Amino acid sequence: MTDRYLLDTVTLSKMTPAQRASDFVRTHCAVPTPVLYEASGLSERDALTPLEYRTTIEVLQHLRIVIASVTDDDKLLDLYRNEGNGDVFLLAVALAERAAADGQLFGDCWIIATDDHGLTRKAAELDLPTCTSAEFIALLR
């Protein structure tokens, strides 16, 4: 089993350009398309394109599960302000990858790297592992 990481916009913004371009990030990390869109303000956004985790049918099926679990108290998604789109996709990708790993002898463990408290709470509710940006960045040293 290999630990793989899904990177949130906040985590990406806290990383240096060299960290974002590191071998570890290129081999162990992915960025869902909506998060990549949110990170469009980063100077080397094009360098992140190879990390893109494109939306699949499986991800959309798990997105339904995530959206159905969201309550007003979650403060995870605000469609009126266009906030949280990347967060729900991070959760959906992690669920899709967990489902894929369940059918494998040694499936990867996908960990969401974020400092977003709402995202972390919802991930815990869905039994998905997370780490903070600082914990993730420490792995790069």
Q: What does this 3D model show about the protein?
A:
It is globular, with a radius of gyration of 14 Å. The longest helix is centred in the middle third of the chain and has 18 residues, at 85-102. The chain has helices spanning 9-14, 17-20, 23-28, 33-38, 45-48, 57-69, 85-102, 117-125, 133-139; strands spanning 3-7, 29-32, 52-53, 109-113, 130-131. It has nine helices and five strands. It is an alpha/beta fold and 141 residues long. It has a single domain (3-139), classed as Rossmann fold (3-Layer(aba) Sandwich). The two termini are 22 Å apart.
Summary?
With 141 residues, the chain is an alpha/beta fold.
How are helices and strands ordered from N to C?
Answer: EHHHEHHEHHEHEH
CATH topology term: Rossmann fold
Strand line-up of the largest beta sheet: 3-2-1-4-5
What is the helix content? 40-55%
* Full CATH superfamily name: 5'-nuclease
The 3D shape can be described as globular
CATH architecture: 3-Layer(aba) Sandwich
The gyration radius over C-alpha positions equals: 14 Å
Largest sheet: 5 strands, parallel
**Which CATH first-tier class would you pick?**
Alpha Beta
Please identify the structural class as seen in this structure.
Answer: alpha/beta
Strand content: 5-15%
Mean pLDDT: 91
Q: Tell me the number of strands.
A: 5
Low-pLDDT stretches = none
N→C terminal distance: 22 Å
> How many structural domains in the coordinates?
1
Number of helices: 9
